[in-house]
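Problem: given the chain below (418 residues), write out its structure.
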Amino acid sequence: MLIYLRVLKESFNFAISALTNNKLRTFLSLLGVTIGIFSIIAVLAAVDSLKKDITGSLSSLDNSTVIVMRFKFGPSDIPRWKSQQFPDVTYEEYQNLKKSLPDLDNISFVLGIPGGAAIKYQDVTSSGVDIGAVTHEYYDIEALELAEGRFFNESESVSGSGVVVLGHEVAQTLFGGSNGIGEEIRIFGRRATVIGVLKKQGQSLFTGSRDGQAFVPANFARLVYGTTKGTVFPQLVMKPESGADSDEFIALLEQNLRNMRGIKPGEINNFFVNELKGLTEFVDNITGQLNIIGLVISGFSLLVGGFGIANIMFVSVKERTNLIGIQKSLGAKNKFILSQFLFEAVILSVIGGLVGLFFVWLVSIVASQFTGDFEFVLSPYNMFIGTLVSAIIGLVSGIIPAMSASKLDPVEAIRTGM
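Solution.
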């Protein structure tokens, strides 16, 4: 063990000597490893950050949540032209399922309002607000958190009362330092009273934030938009009871909807049942593919880096031929020489990799500053992967030069070195 620690120490000294004595040559040789590690870890960090951002935005919803609509989250076997003819889900279907569907914990009727809306308070206007037109159950399904006030109740939801719950950012825009509870605003050209303000969530680069939203009763929005297809996008958001079998729940849900719509046996469903866990799996699949593509592209940089390490090691062997001959003449075994040069190659490669990791760290800090609340994450796992990959590149690239050094004849090595 002590001899290998000594070899490691000598190899580290030789590696540092190569860095200091041949700065330009070493820099050019290690540049490939630095760029390769930078590319790989930058891709992994970016994809991990994207995944964290998306899953964080979905974390308020239970993974068992089911969303019924005429669209599908991911790819579908049904042609697009056919699915576009599917009818929207209706408020009546929401009412019927609420009464008849077994193992149902909660269900909410949701209207997607395209394009956002303007909310006006006196002379102040907040434009492009994402409006969530929902029934009162949505508050429990998504586990919304209020900073002030309350969410609308069942009576207000059914009657379509003019009440509104604002996101943090919208409330700040309209009322400044005040929470605005009890104030009257105008939305969809109609009057509504502010009854609640959500807790600040922070921005999400890819999926938006509750801070820029406002929630009104679905029936309040229906009075304005009606139910004309294409004007709004109705959805049924539901959560089964804890412990319920998801496959059985979905089968019963589909059968209930088929009966309501008079779909005959053998005919396909004219609606889609989207599971949130299916969306998270879809996100995992996409991020996995992005990782693979990034790794393949970055692999070419590492290949160049590997050639750079091999080149510097061949030069190192040639420069130290005389020293190798002296070591072998004094009894150094082949494996000692082999280990010495392998350690040196690994150390040089790891140094290049650490420089690459340092640049990724700098870029992640700068990028996070320019993207607001979206955070680029350089995880310890990715740092470990970067260091491990650079060590493997050094090991593979240094094996041939190390073997050639270990097989040198001591007499010929001393004569050649002289």
